[in-house]
Amino acid sequence: MGYDEPIFLNSKNQITEGATSNIFVVVGDKIYTPKLSCGLLNGIVRQYIVSNYDVIESKIDLEFLNNADEIFLTNSLFGIMPVNNLEKKVFKSQKISKEIFNYYKKYIENI
Fold first, then answer.
1. CA pair distance 93, 49, nearest whole angstrom
2. What is the enclosing helix (H) or strand (E) of 37?
3. Are residues 56 and 30 in contact, defined by beta-carbon separation less than 8 angstroms?
4. pLDDT tens-digit profile of 61-76?
5. Contact at 8 Å (CB) between 16 and 9?
6. Kind and range of the H or E element at 90?
7. Exposed e or buried b per residue across 37-74, where buried means at least 16 C-beta atoms within 10 angstroms of its C-beta
8. Most buried among 41, 45, 53, 87, by the most CB within 10 A?
9. What is the β-pairing status of strands 22-27 and 15-18?
10. What percent of the chain lies above the pLDDT cut of 90?
11. Does 7-109 carry CATH code 3.20.10.10?
12. Beta pairing partners, 8
């Protein structure tokens, strides 16, 4: 019912990416994204964020995702998009994703 983006898992039940996006998870003030070795496309916006922010590349499982304070998706078409909810969990904070989006928007405007 009303899903915008499915999240893919690899054969080890680790988060890889969305159908058309890369995924970032915020816990506290730390930003995480799946390692490339988990089997995902290293998108352009993902590369920008990993290069410009202190991002921890790690293996992420569903439990970790469900304990997130914030989740955001990236791709070359929409740039950076905060996730409002994951199934029944609603994310109240979008502070870090909106901050990154604002810097990314300025970066794109100056290219």
1. 19
2. none
3. yes
4. 999 999 999 999 999 9
5. yes
6. strand 89-90
7. ebebeebebbebbbeeeeeeeeebeeeebeebbbbbbb
8. 45
9. unpaired
10. 85
11. yes
12. 17
Domains of the chain, residue spans = 7-109
Contact 14, 61 (CB under 8 A): yes
Strand partners, 52: none
- Looking at residue 2, what is its pLDDT? 63
DSSP string, 55-67: EEEE--BHHHHHT
Strand partners for 61: 14
CA 51, distance to chain mean position in Å, is 14
pTM: 0.94
Cβ atoms of 69 and 27 closer than 8 Å: yes
Cα 76 to Cα 73: distance, rounded to the nearest angstrom: 11
Token digits of residue 102: 């604002």
